[in-house]
Amino acid sequence: MRRVSKIAAAGVVSAALAMTATACGSSSSSDSSSGGNKGVGMAFDVGGRGDHSFNDSAARGMDKADKEFNLGHKEQTASNGETESDREQRLDLLAGAGYNPVVAVGFTYGDAVKKIAAKYPKTTFGIVDSVVDAPNADSMVFSTEQSSYLAGVAAALKSKTGKVGFIGGVHNTLIGTFQAGFDQGVKDTKPSDTVTDQYLYETDTKGFNDPTSAQGKAQGMLDNGVDVIYTAAGLSGDGSIQAVAGKPGAWAIGVDSDQYQDAALAKYKNSILTSAVKNVDVAVYDLIKSVHDGKPKAGTNAYDLKTGGVSLATSGGFTTDIQAQIDAAKAKIVSGEIKVKSTP
């Protein structure tokens, strides 16, 4: 039996949820459950399902659980330029309509989860990339600096010019972990290599949903001799990959999902050296299963190289010739011999 919330006015609130979809971002649903047992509420970050990155990873985890446990679900997506009240309203409507768990994808939902989780103590909330101190919240955090370090190792070993680049979507603490790990991996492997670090936006989350800006940044780097570019910017990364694909001999490094395997990026896949994978799908699936089993997860749950929570993809076989060095670096991180920085 699924452990889900029931409220007498579920039908009324569900109608309100549909009516406010425009104000709270796009919305879609697949309600295969009946009565008050609504299933999973998913609040995506900007870019949403189809971002070929961490939102898609979260969606895979939900889809797997949906299929396995015959759950319904409602998903909504954040829009550029949202306010805190927009995020709160989205979570409030999902929880109020009877969805359980309610999963918030992205650090921007941190404060909203803390507030709305207190309002619905019998509903379990999941938050990706942020820590929320609440008895009914599962904080899913990932050691992205570790997988990024391995991406840096690969970049240094594959670069022919000795110039590599990093593009971040938003200049904040979270994306800083990607930069820190990547920069360290490059420098530990080839100290003489030059790393160019750039960001699309300082604070605006549009940085995760602006492929055109990323394409421009990447092209500028390529024009300056950079031949390997790692982009941590959600959907914006598509633009960077496209730019790299137009430069013979250059490599792109994907993020969060194994972007070589993404059908939407198929025509660029031979330019995708590897991807620093963040297994949000595993964390989301684990949370949904725990609620379904009546033993909801809570607290801070960390996913790192040791547990398989983050990894470096091998799809395409482009890292086969340097895999031994990547594996050696991974072993040193897992053992603690290499301490990866989480700040640039």
From TrEMBL:
Residue stretches making up the ABC transporter substrate-binding protein PnrA-like domain: 40-342
InterPro entries, per database record: BMP_lipoprotein (IPR050957), Peripla_BP_I (IPR028082), PnrA-like (IPR003760)
Family annotation (PANTHER family): ABC TRANSPORTER GUANOSINE-BINDING PROTEIN NUPN, TRANSCRIPTIONAL ACTIVATOR PROTEIN MED
Secretion signal span: 1-23
Subcellular locations according to the entry: Cell membrane
Residue segments, region Disordered: 68-87
Stated name of the protein: Basic membrane protein A
Species of origin: Actinacidiphila rubida
Any one GO CC term of the record: plasma membrane
Top-level taxon of origin: Bacteria
Keyword Electron transport: no
Bilayer disposition of the protein: Lipid-anchor
Record has S-adenosyl-L-methionine as a keyword: no
Pfam families for the chain: Bmp (PF02608)
Family membership: Belongs to the BMP lipoprotein family.
